[in-house]
Specification:
Blueprint lengths: L8 E2 L15 H16 L10 H15 L3 E2 H24 L3 E4 L4 E4 L1 H10 L14 H8 L27
Parallel strand pairs: 1-2
Antiparallel strand pairs: 3-4
Helix pairs in contact: 1-2, 3-5
Length: about 170
Amino acid sequence: MSRKRKEPCTTSSEPRSRINDARWDFPRVSLFIKLMYDHYKKGQLISFTFSEQIWCEIGVELYERNRTQYTVAQLKGKANRFRMLWRQFYDLVYKRTGFGWDPTTYTVTASEDRWTEWIAANPREFGLRKKSLPHFDLCTEMFSTSVATSNIARSSAIPHFNNNGDDELM
């Protein structure tokens, strides 16, 4: 009996059902971030997203490597959730004192007292303590342009500017 094989990439306009919910184990998450990073390095990340064609290419690459099919909507949704999680981790690691990054467990680290203090002040972020994000460094490079918040804030992706003290920053 011959069965038709599903297309490894489908558009976001297709209806979703609970049966078609994406499954994301650690190896798939890691591979997905690496594939996104590869396309980012090719200059294909525009305004914090990829074109529909690039999302399809990423979907095909995921399918070829792990035989799991994702829709473009699932890929975009997961990428957006990664960016939001990365932003929370980045803020803790780089903007707060007492937090660090463990590259072995891919988690934010802090003393028990610091976590207790943070969670008491930010109860909605309770889950961050147990969440992990592989390739934090790659995510930082890809998503860092969204971190700048003031008129003189700079992305780490922008080369350093040295004015040698000649000009005032506005």
